[in-house]
Design a protein that fits this description.
Elements lengths: L2 H25 L2 H19 L8 H34 L5 H23 L9 H36 L1
Helix pairs in contact: 1-3, 1-4, 2-3, 3-4, 3-5, 4-5
Amino acid sequence: MNKEKIVDLVFIILTVLWCAVIFSFSSQDGNESGGLSEKVCYFVAENFVFDFDEMTDTKQLEIIDGMHLFIRKTAHFCVYALLGFLVASVLRRKKPLTRGALSQGFVTLYAISDEIHQGFVSGRNGNAIDVLIDSCGGFCGILFSIILFKIISALLKKRLENNE
């Protein structure tokens, strides 16, 4: 098996695994999902909010509540940015416009199916805004992949020219 086929296989496996991770997160009931978000909020607050540990419980809860929605939506964006990057990387040998369109289509359809799936999970619901956030994250990941592989391709081309 040549290097390109191995790289293809690695990106395909990583994409499938990441889809499984997303599915797993979406399978958490409302309490479990909320608890995970709360842990992330506390981690961020404890490490990035000045004097968080010295604040009253009421003030800490106020800060946690204030960042909860932002943390959840940022997580959506980042999770799908990685998915977009992986899908576009699988399709890296296609022309950028084709790669971008196919990757965006996959990411958006997966986001829709993910929100539908959440509609069947206790304490969760599907949300069209999340599909939009997921799709935007996917777009950024796709764009990053296209730019990164353009740079890699240019560097490899230059390296080959220097070796001739």
